[in-house]
Amino acid sequence: MQFMMDFELKLEKPNVSRAWISAATMGISYFIGGLLPMIPYFATKNTNHALFISIGITVVVCITFGFLKNYAILKTKRAGLYGAAQTLLVGALAAGTSYGIVYGVDHSGLAS
Length: 112
What we know:
Layout: H1 2-8, H2 16-35, H3 39-43, H4 47-74, H5 77-106
Helix pairs in contact: 4-5
């Protein structure tokens, strides 16, 4: 195995401490990314109003993250706009799929 890593694949031995840093970064990012859209539900009494504020926050976060992700890598505004559109589309598809699954379960009689 070591022979393959050294000579065939030209891979270095992974740094164990880096795995912990990556895991902590991902965990904190998911926590903050999941907490931001929840804030309107804590701040308002009307859940319908909070839902639309939450959707707006999520759209802004998806666009911002998508733009910055691609812009940081490719350094062009066009790449940033493509990344923003791509991230927004994936987020919308994920939200629509989740909504559809919940709607289907709720109307199938399995939820009672």
